[in-house]
Structures are given as C-alpha cells and as structure tokens.
Specification:
By secondary structure, the protein is mainly alpha-helical. The protein has nine helices and no strands. The radius of gyration is 20 Å and the shape is elongated.
Length: 188
C-alpha cells in the first residue's frame, strides 16, 4: 500500500529527479507516483493534470537554476563576473537537466504554452534585473562608458541575448563576450 504524500514539495523533488534522469518529456502522473512511492491519487491532490505538474516542475527548475544562487552570488560582483557566473549557471542547468531547455518548449499542450512562456519570461526578467544591478553597482566601470547611444539597459539586453545565443549554440565558455564587455566597460 502506498503512503500519503505530506507535501507538494516532496512531489516536486521527486518530479525534478525524474526530469534529471529520464527527461521532462517522460514525466507522467503515474511515473511520479511510482517514484515518490505514493498512490496516483495523491499526485492528483496537488496537480490536477499533467500540465499543472509540468508547469510546477518547470517553474521549480527555473527557480533552482537562476533565482537562489544567481541573486545571492551576483549581488557583490562586478558586471563581467556576474555574466560569467550566469553562464556557469546555464552550464550547470544543462548538465543537471540535459533536455530541459529544449523539451520545456514542446512538452506543453497548446493551451498551456502561454503559461510556460510567462514562466520563462519572468525568470529572464529576474536575470536581467540582476545583471543590471551588477552593472549599476560595478565600481570599475569607466565614467564615459554610457552615453545617449548606449544605455545600461541596452547593454544588459545585448549581453543576455548573446548569452542565450551562446547557450543555444552549445558554446562551452563565454570568454569572447567577456573580453568584449571588458574592453567596452573598463579602463585599460
């Protein structure tokens, strides 16, 4: 006989473990129940359907990858260090959840794709705010680095877009981007 689950968090932990080992696309209500050692009905008590489960798992993975570690660790970093840290977080996420970035775009039913995009956009917005804070508080930035043609927000947007492009292309480091940013922002 299966035990009752006492929390949604325990199910999310089991679901993320399944996502790591078998991929997001393999995550099903029954497989989660089996992995958590509970009855399928217990899963439905917390997640009324597969899309609710997937949404919760994707949100939790995004949070784990970028919110906790990135916010705390970039608080007192210079901008280029924060960019390098973010790239490292992306690499860790890819290593932990190999199909996450590709699969989470296609696993949702059409009716849920908008919610999945909102989750991603909320995470991206959070990341860009952290990068902007790192840029605004970096004491090494040249005083003349920004003018009417280049703003701090525009540079953060440019940087994040290029980080995503590096990740999409399978790049193993972001050294060239850091070199360009360093030449632009810091005195020689």
């Amino acid at each position: 006989m299966h035990q009752n689950v006492t929390s949604k968090e325990k199910l999310l932990l089991a679901a993320k473990e399944l996502a790591k080992t078998e991929g997001l696309s393999a995550l099903q209500m029954r497989s989660l129940a089996s992995a958590a050692g509970v009855a399928v009905g217990s899963v439905y008590n917390y997640f009324p359907n597969k899309n609710a489960l997937l949404t919760a798992v994707v949100a939790s993975i995004w949070f784990d990858m970028f919110h906790n570690d990135t916010t705390e660790n970039t608080r007192n970093m210079g901008f280029c260090d924060a960019v390098s840290h973010l790239f490292a977080q992306i690499q860790k996420g890819i290593a932990a959840y190999p199909d996450f970035f590709a699969a989470h775009r296609v696993i949702f039913e059409e009716s849920e794709k908008e919610n999945a995009l909102k989750l991603r956009e909320n995470t991206f917005s959070h990341i860009e705010k952290n990068l902007l804070n790192a840029l605004e508080t970096d004491p090494r930035i040249r005083p003349d680095a920004f003018d009417g043609s280049l703003t701090q927000k525009a540079l953060v947007s440019f940087t994040f877009t290029h980080l995503l492009a590096l990740w999409n292309s399978g790049a193993k480091d972001c050294g060239t981007l850091i070199a360009i940013l360093s030449k632009l922002l810091y005195s020689a």
